Amino acid sequence: MTLNARIAPLLYLFAGLFGLAGVALAAAAAHGGGDAHLVASASAMCLAHGPTLLALAIGAEKLRTAWLAGLLIGAGTLLFAGDLVALRYAGSGLFPMAAPTGGFAMMFGWLAIAVGAFVRRG
């Protein structure tokens, strides 16, 4: 079993959890006051990257870099959205530079998808 095949269930799991969180956070942003823009941004990242992880899981055997892209995008989304939600509801972020670190991880995940276009199956 390839690494992509082994990581696919994890990608499905986080795709579903990010979809759930994205909808819940969108509702919280719509009905919340104060720093609702933080929750709206977290919602947008979850709703954008949940389907991405789903697509990576479905196409894991066709894209050699799916495992790397999925890990980067998943971890990045957790850090980015988690930091914004923590800032909104706990009053402080996860740790200094958590959101930017997550943002860079997501960008590198997308880059891993692009690089996958040039990495051929052996």
TrEMBL record:
Pfam families: DUF423 (PF04241). The keyword Transmembrane applies. The chain crosses the membrane at residues 36-59, 66-91, 97-119. This is Uncharacterized membrane protein YgdD, TMEM256/DUF423 family. InterPro entries: DUF423. Residues 1-26 form the signal peptide. It comes from Rhizobium tibeticum. Keywords: Membrane, Signal, Transmembrane, Transmembrane helix.
